[in-house]
Amino acid sequence: MTRIITMGAAQLGPIQRAHSRKDVVERMLILLRDAARHGVDCVVFPELALTTFFPRWYIEDQAELDCFYEREMPSAETKPLFDEAKRLKIGFYLGYAEMTIEDGKTRRFNTAILVDREGNIVGKYRKIHLPGHKEHEPWRAFQHLEKRYFEVGNLSWKTWRTMGGVFGMAICNDRRWPETYRIMGLQGVEMVLIGYNTPRHNPPSPEHDRLSEFHNQLVIQSGAYQNGTWVVSVAKCGVEEGCEMIGNSSIVAPTGEVIGQALTQDDELVIARCDLDLTRSFKDWVFNFERHREPDQYRMIVERKGAIPPA
Ligand code: CDT
């Protein structure tokens, strides 16, 4: 038996600060139409896909900062993307900075939505692992102020039955943490969608810079295999406002193998036919959670936050 879904990793090259949402949506429409020509069912756009990666700057003026957030989805600027995707019958994942009012309080999240092939928003995820720092650290070549500009996501990781499979979402730094995949694995996920912005240079640990692509591959391939799921992981990349971000957008099979990968650091569409039933032999045998997991022995994972080595 096969359940094929054709996935498109819609990598975006750099978005400079001067680029408007309209400019970006036009680039997305080009990728979307290319996807349609190749019979793609669902495309994945990156994290914070509508603007430049603004956490690289310490911005004190709240009004200036707020320009990077979306107050509604779709908005007048993003509606053409929703309309065209619906017309072409293509689902999509879209990452954006969300500003919302909940219980009379303004809240800001690093968010992704999943839209089905009929144009309905079927799922929302708010990034949980926020990397970087909260205060201005002028010694850095550039800032990484996600901890300042976003709250920790409050929706956990869910999965949704849509487009013929069980879909889940994560955002960028989440992909480095095994808990991310396992929580979706425990909900039977078959297709994990991830968008990212990964600067090559990490100021506190520059000795890791040369390993950026390797670490990217390592985590998505292991996450896929250990949970018997497909992973489509998509970059915004290239040199954005003087800061280089890695590409390497990938489609990974439940075998752990990369079956499609971007070659550029620019707008690029990577396509793969993904058989959702390829998840079965992993979910039924080596990673049959019901048969082999021992949750009683894992209590420390939720009871302890930081490592405490023996005395
Ligand atoms: N956007 C994002 O989460 N980027 C991080 C950079 C880590 S270094 C602060 C990532 O994990 O790729």
Structure description:
By secondary structure, the chain is α/β, with parallel strands linked by helices. It has one domain: Nitrilase/N-carbamoyl-D-aminoacid amidohydrolase (4-Layer Sandwich), CATH 3.60.110.10. The chain has 9 helices and 14 strands. It has helices spanning 21-37, 62-66, 79-88, 146-149, 178-185, 212-227, 280-286, 289-292, 300-303; strands at residues 4-11, 42-44, 91-102, 105-115, 121-126, 159-162, 165-171, 191-196, 230-235, 238-240, 243-245, 250-252, 258-261, 268-275. The strands form 3 sheets. A 6-stranded mixed sheet has the order 5-4-3-2-1-14. Strands 6-7-8-9-12-13 form a 6-stranded mixed sheet, covered by helices on one side. Strand 1, helix 1 and strand 2 (42-44) form a beta-alpha-beta unit. Helix 1 runs parallel beside helix 3 (79-88). The longest helix has 17 residues, at 21-37. The model has no long low-confidence stretch (mean pLDDT 98).
Keywords:
binds 4-methylsulfanyl-2-ureido-butyric acid, 14 strands, 24% helix, six-stranded mixed beta sheet, Nitrilase/N-carbamoyl-D-aminoacid amidohydrolase, 311 residues, alpha/beta, 9 helices, globular
